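User: I'll paste a sequence; please echo it back and then give the predicted structure.

Assistant: Echoing your sequence first, then the prediction.
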Amino acid sequence: MTVGIVEPQRLTLQLPADGFRLERGGMLPEIQVAYERCGQPAQPDGRNVIYICHALTGDAHVAGIRPGETEPSGWWEGMIGSGRGIDTDYYHVVCANMLGGCRGTTGPSSIDPRTGHPYGSHFPTMTVADIVAVQRLFLQQLGITHLAAVAGGSFGGMQALEWAIRFPDAVDRCLVIAAAASVNSQALAFDIIGRQAIVEDPDWQGGDYYGTGRAPVHGLARARKLGHITYLSSQMMDDKFGRAKRTEWLEADDAFHAESRRTFRTYFQVESYLQHQGEKFTTRFDANSYLHITHAMDEYDVAERHGSLEQAFAAVQARMLVVALSGDWLFMPEQSAEMVKALLNQRKRVTYCHLEAPAGHDAFLTHIDELQQVIRAFLPWVGSQAASAEAHADEAASEHDAVVALVPAGSRVLDLGCGDGTLLARLEREKHARGVGVEIDVSEVVRATDAGQDVLLEDIDDGLAIIPDQTFDIAVLSETLQVMRRPRFVVQQILRVAREAIITFPNFGYLPVRAQLLLAGRMPKRGPLPFEWYDTPNIHLFTLNDFLALCRADGLIVQEMRLLPGGAWSRAGLSLGLHNLAAERAVIRIAKR
């Protein structure tokens, strides 16, 4: 449900007598901030306040209906509202137009009170740190000194990241979506060419075009067209346009065709689309704002500023959510993984989701079904839908009992194939362990995150590359080794990221399994092997003896072994030492020599 009517508001910041000093030496004597707010009233301590950082060309209108409109028109309308990802039944949401913008907050088109004319070319160079510092001053003046969360996508995600680094005491949770700690060289190239298109437009006039009747609309349109290409994936462009041509252009008069030949215009729909996007953009955005904001974004480099990502994240206190989109080639998933790796290195709480989004970068705005679930789960909203660990009647309780018994108290645990986070919650409760889960199923990630666990949406078979060496004391792989494509490699990777490992698996050498094969001549379907042969996820069935042989071959130490019986006769067989014959499942703690 939409948030209803939202009133655009403005606030003049209370600045020192010498104005607001920017990081690069400039000064602004006055700053006005345009903003909107919606949802429940802000709690006095700000613990239900979420600040949204908008992207490059966004504004404060993140959700709702503006006065005079009849339909919701917020740029993140589907994410914010009653029952949505950011639930306004509980949260108070604030979004302000950023410094340097042209939608109400002080920027190059604003009047300089010292001259009575627009700043134009005299607007000072600004940085992301300046943008975030103004946001902080603005919120403090509203009486908000603490945030339940700060969130942003794209350039907004970079601002959210800067919040977590610059004001670690002020933020409980930080959501960095389709963003990075710096812009890569390919994205830089697009931005550089876009800025050149503006400054080389004769109507730019060195930045002082206000009031002249001429503005660099052609250069700004070209910059927008170029930028817009980066917002869509190749697949999305093909699906949307392919090589289709506009019928009305093909059927135009001779003069139109002659002009097309003279200007080398094609009739492809993609050209028409880009032309429309460029023209539309010039009606709502200012060229100087585009120059200043893209320049601030391109200059932002967390690692360069702090020496490394690890050093930058050392002071971070917020729980972090990092979301990457598969089709995004503007802020690539590898850049998100880089941030997650650095956060893990610093032992910070982080959840990472690499979502399937073939639409590309703009999917964080346009294809948000899974993203909405992830965000809703990550935020500590009242009335969580996740079933708690206590509420689960876990059929693997006996196996979990064995795992819990083997985990040393106070350990940092990695739970591979963590499911809904039940085991992590139990280890936290009973062993005071702090853990991170790895899970490939988005729905399970949502459930585990909603239950308060940190989870990485990753494929274990890919080698856990996102996790630094020896990050964890112990890793747990429950009933999963047999579904791995490369089980030996997975074991090696587990012992790279953790000092010890607990591996649990069904024992294919168990007597009833052998009997079914021998007597019925059919693949077993019972107990821990409940699937038919044609739909089983198990692709590497092995026995207890097979696993022990692998440990010997790879020089691994079996530190402790707990064998789980399948019944009374099984317990008797185990007591007689018939381990491979009588154990239905095995729980084994291993380490490198």
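The radius of gyration is 29 Å. The chain has 22 helices and 21 strands.
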